[in-house]
Amino acid sequence: MTVAVSAVLLCLAAGLAFAMHQSKTKPGSVFEKAWFQGKALRVFPVRSLAYVFLAAVTLFFGMLAVDRAGERYQFLMEDHSALLMQFENTHIGLEYPLVAIRGRHEIGAKQGKRILVLGDSFVWGYKLTNMNQIWWSVMARELERRGYDCEVIAVGHPGAATYDIYQWLAGTSVLEDIRPDLMIIGYVTNDADPAPRLADLGEGSAPKAYDPERSMTVLPEDDNEKDLMRVIFPNISAYMSSMLFTTGLMDQRLRLRLLRDLADQTHANWEEKIVGGENLSDYDAYVLRPMGEFIGRTGIPAFVFPTPNAPNGRNFKLLYRDVLPLFERAGFTVYNPLDEFIERYPRPGRGFNRYFRASPIDPHPGPATCWFLGEYAADVLEREYAYVLGEKRTEKKTYRIEINDWMPYMLAPRAVIESERVSRYVIEYPDQASEPDYQNGVHGNFLSYPLRQKYVKLNFKNPVRLSSVKIEGEELLSARVWTLGINEALGFDDQRPVKWPHGSQRRVTSLLISARTKDGKQAALTVTIEGEADL
Q: pTM of the entire structure?
């Protein structure tokens, strides 16, 4: 359709331009006439209309060129796939949302000290395709590096509010199952939304139970093919949608209809409303104070940890100003990283900004933010809660080469060997002909960015200095491998893929595998990894 429209417009414009050029030597030509002409009035002269048409065609092809040079739509589709994969990976089926890979990280017997982290999408790792990059995972790895032996377990869900955290603690078996020695309660600027409004229930009434089966709307319900803008300019349309959503409109489908009401519909203004007035009073009375009393009765140490997404974003201090004192009045200790975060990155350069985003089009915390928050939280624990962490070990510890996270879930790596020098896994490489169906919540079998080609992803629990990667299989025709790794100058994974075996000396966090199998069908592949885990 786009090609046909472009061809017709281009032919019309070319013909019109040629005719106008020829008319210059022909006085009284049709281009000198008007649609309506009186004695002293000429309405809609044809030449002017022709110039308008030519300008419109020029604008159209200019937009088309810009659109084709962009990748926003592909990023948007990639985000949808990654989000659906995350829900599939972490669908544990408990009455509270344990953040873990199902079948791999069920809660086991308690071996030592345990820290329980609770929160929303910032704890769930929204749009991160490696759960080891979530800030609490960084914290756990940093504590391990410093010599502390403790287990960090996270419970969180996108869209969860402090109200949900309270219900997980008071209304489910999470404390009995995990038996934490300390709790960290994450707080983000939209967590003050009681949802449902507890004031309507009346004090002492039983709040609505948390539903672990709830999911998020990934794509608008309308038919994308009916949106001419999306069909002709997919990247520009995706850019407009995502920008209006992240800076503004709650529902992308309303982006044009609600522009006149933008001041009242923005996410930013909604956040400002829920941290003030009657809503803030309800939040204090029906969430913070009861939760503070409940945690106080458990005797488990707990602190609140505000988690921003970027230092150069909106004014977080304003949004936190009236809320954090309420936490303290409810009996919580608050450790606020905001000032130090902004001081560390006062005005990060344009090229550095991308490290603060979970993806090119999503503003949730990316590797730079998670790295900072993880280290800050580890500092707080070591400084204020050393009695919980216990003594540091003095002997050097070695670690297995371990794949603990992957995308998509169907890879289902089965460990044949997991040791300090070599590990071997059998994975189910997906069908290469499958296509996603986002409207029905079906993701594709592959990721594509930042490689811009289909691949699957295996993530290491701890970074590994690789010496060898071998992929084998009866149905395998060919395979290429890229690695992601720690940028030593930055201190975190910069998400820049390096084709193997280049970059073999760096600490690798992920393997990206792009393979071809016979007939493009699903096939069992064996991945053998040699090297040394290095925190």
A: 0.80
Strands 42-45, 113-119: pairing is unpaired
Cα angle for residues 66, 69, 73 (degrees, 5° grid): 95
Q: Could you tell me the two tokens for 114?
A: 């345990």
CATH class of 76-213+279-389: alpha beta
Whole-number Å distance between alpha carbons of 123 and 199: 27
Among residues 392, 425, 397, the alpha carbon closest in space to that of 411 is found at: 425
- Which DSSP helix (H) or strand (E) runs through 334? strand 333-334
Neighbour count for residue 500 (Cβ, 10 Å):
18
103-117 pLDDT tens trace: 676 788 888 899 999
| Residue 285, token pair as written in the block | 């009375």
Token representation of residue 220: 């608008």
Tokens read off for 334: 């608050």
By the 10 Å C-beta count (0-12 exposed, 13-18 middle, 19+ buried), 148 is classed as buried
Cis amide leading into 450 (omega within 30): yes
Among candidates 110, 212, 196, which has minimal Cα distance to 156? 212
pLDDT at 252 over 60: no
Secondary structure element (H or E) that encloses residue 78, with its range: helix 72-89
Tokens (6 digits) for 230: 């999306």
Let me know if 347 is exposed, middle or buried by CB neighbors in 10 A (0-12, 13-18, 19+).
exposed
Give the residue extent of every domain in the chain: 2-69, 76-213+279-389, 224-270, 403-533
Which residue in 529, 525, 527, 526 sits closest to 432, CA to CA? 525
At residue 204, does pLDDT exceed 70? no
Distance CA 306, CA 119 (A): 10
Structure tokens at 454: 């289909």
Residue among 324, 323, 311, 408 nearest 363 (CA): 311
Q: How far is CA 453 from CA 324, 411, 427, 515, 516, in A?
A: 45, 18, 19, 11, 12
The DSSP output letter for 455 is: B
Report the candidate in 131, 201, 123 with the shortest Cα–Cα distance to residue 161: 123
- Which amino acid, residue 215? S
Position 290 scores a pLDDT of 94
Cβ atoms of 275 and 324 closer than 8 Å = no
**Cis ω on the peptide bond leading into residue 360 (within 30° of 0)?**
no
| Amino acid 317: pLDDT | 74
DSSP run (H or E) holding 268: helix 267-274
**Cα–Cα distance, 377 to 271 (Å, whole number):** 25
Residue 79: which of 143, 158, 16, 182 has the closest Cα? Answer: 158
Question: What is the total residue count of the chain?
Answer: 535
DSSP letter assigned to residue 287 = I
